[in-house]
Amino acid sequence: MIDEKENVVMSTQRELFEADLKTALRAAAKAYDRKRFVVVGSASILASHPDAPGYLRLSADIDMFPLRKLKTETFKPGDDLVGQASEFEHENDFYVERVGDWTMLSQPAGWLERCVQFKVDHITGYCLSPIDLAYNKTEAGRKKDIDFVAGMINEGIIGREELGIFIQSECPHPDLLPTVEKNFEVVCAELDHV
């Protein structure tokens, strides 16, 4: 959708499916000349729970980054091929959001080993495990993230107690723990109001 006032492309969310993750990985492999990607954000649930309820699969994009760093000069051409407002988005009604490995700097140790490997052709997506996805979203703490984590708990994808223990035992930065705990309290409050 194009906003005529600002001439800005505005992507709309839709339900994503396992086939979309395959499409995104194939396109990203071609665009960035890489074969291994870390898939973060809500779309990573497609690897572990492809049949999750539609509201947990709603997104306008699939966030990922190559496991092996890109050279700076390869960012833009790849983004132009699969990113927002690309031909890829027009054809698929979602786009690939290339994020950086910085998105995982405050993730608990061992997150990569816990990833769910999702293979298509010769390409591998390392998709965040449900507990790491829930932690990541709880740390971010935006309203949409809180709602997503509450949904994961409501659907039995992760347990409330499981996430609480994970936060307490695995938060890698003591200075960050109070914020993550506070956000988790908001998740719990939302669950208690349902």
In brief:
The protein is α/β, with parallel strands linked by helices. It is 46% helix and 17% strand. Helix 1 crosses helix 3 (72-82), helix 6 (130-140) packs across helix 9 (177-192) and helix 8 (160-170) packs antiparallel against helix 9 (177-192).
Description:
The protein is of the alpha/beta class and 194 residues long. It has 2 domains: 1-128, no CATH class; 130-194. Helix content is 46%, strand content 17%. The chain has helices spanning 18-32, 45-48, 72-82, 87-92, 111-114, 130-140, 143-154, 160-170, 177-192; strands at residues 2-3, 8-9, 14-15, 36-40, 58-59, 61-66, 95-98, 116-120, 123-127. The strands form 3 sheets. A 5-stranded mixed beta sheet has the order 7-6-4-9-8. A two-stranded antiparallel ribbon has the order 1-2. A hairpin with a 4-residue loop joins strand 1 (2-3) and strand 2 (8-9). Helix 1 crosses helix 3 and helix 8 (160-170) packs antiparallel against helix 9 (177-192). The longest helix is centred in the C-terminal third of the chain and has 16 residues, at 177-192. The two termini are 33 Å apart.
User: What is the alpha-carbon Rg in Å?
Assistant: 17 Å
Largest sheet: 5 strands, mixed
Uncertain spans: 1-8
* Helix content class: 40-55%
**Counted beta strands:** 9
Distance N to C terminus: 33 Å
Supply the number of helical segments.
9
Q: How large a portion of the residues is in β-strands, by DSSP E?
A: 15-25%
Pfam family, one: DUF6036
Organism: Rubritalea spongiae
Protein name: DUF6036 family nucleotidyltransferase
